[in-house]
Amino acid sequence: MKTRKDVRGQVVLITGSARGLGRELCLAFHRLGASIVCVDIDEEGNEMTAEMIRGQGGTVRAFTLDITNREKIASMHEAVKRDLGPVDILVNNAAVVKPNIYVNSETDELVRKIIDVNILGQFWMNKEILPSMLNRNSGHIVSISSLISMVGTHSLSAYTASKWGVTGMMEALDQELNMLNSKVVLTTVCPYFMDSNEDITRNISISFPVIPLNVICNSTVDGILKNKKMFTIPGFLFLAMMFYKILPSKLQYQMQKLLGASYNYCKSDYDTLKKYQRGTTSL
């Protein structure tokens, strides 16, 4: 059984900290004795998270930041180093979760936003903070990916693509760090759907109940503290996804119908599907 590392006195930077899993992770690492850096584009929600930590006697800095802006990321990082010291753990949690049908041209700007935040945002955060970790030969980068990064899901084409990209990015970076004989640790977390946002969960059709946010948070923190390289939440789904991949296509489609997930279509998505649909397949 792996032992959990001690993060007391370390600086933990978490993006998407204004609500949901990001807020819960901020509070969890604060309780473990870490200094917290809250980063989110939502100033009000982000400050609320910071106030919750201050109210518990914690050390925290809050930054209102668009993680797709490299210059502002660099300025934020300089302020963190000046006020708290170098970042020991970076948790890339911020993400845009919105449904879209691949062939619907009306959602092109949404696709761009999802890719910019979910993939490029993580690239820019990593590229800013990783050099400091490499110089110290110490640090931990965490990516909150998704179970969707292991199996494509209709009605979430851009989000699926972004999470596949995140998981692939982390695998490639892991190989680079291995070439450098670096002690910087990487962790990729692939959770099932969680009850972090009612606007999302009420518009999704899934075969199993969403996982309580506290369960996702506790499992994520445990995996980070144990330096796990990659894991799903719940854990058994990792092997289930491997089994799914070796099935013939027709059986994969049947499993998707039985166990898969989809968002309720918006009107433009639904109209697009009706336009191109052939046969009697239900939408």
TrEMBL record:
GO MF annotation terms: all-trans-retinol dehydrogenase (NADP+) activity
One Gene Ontology cellular component annotation held by this UniProt entry: lipid droplet
Annotated family: Belongs to the short-chain dehydrogenases/reductases (SDR) family.
Ranges that cross the membrane: 230-247
Membrane topology designation: Multi-pass membrane protein
Keyword Lipid metabolism in annotation: yes
UniProtKB keywords: Lipid metabolism, Membrane, NADP, Oxidoreductase, Transmembrane, Transmembrane helix
Descriptive protein name: Short-chain dehydrogenase/reductase 3
Function in brief: Catalyzes the reduction of all-trans-retinal to all-trans-retinol in the presence of NADPH.
Gene3D superfamilies attached to this UniProt entry: NAD(P)-binding Rossmann-like Domain
InterPro entries to which the protein is assigned, alphabetical: NAD(P)-bd_dom_sf, SDR_fam
Localization, UniProt: Membrane
Pfam families according to UniProt: adh_short (PF00106)
Keyword Membrane: yes
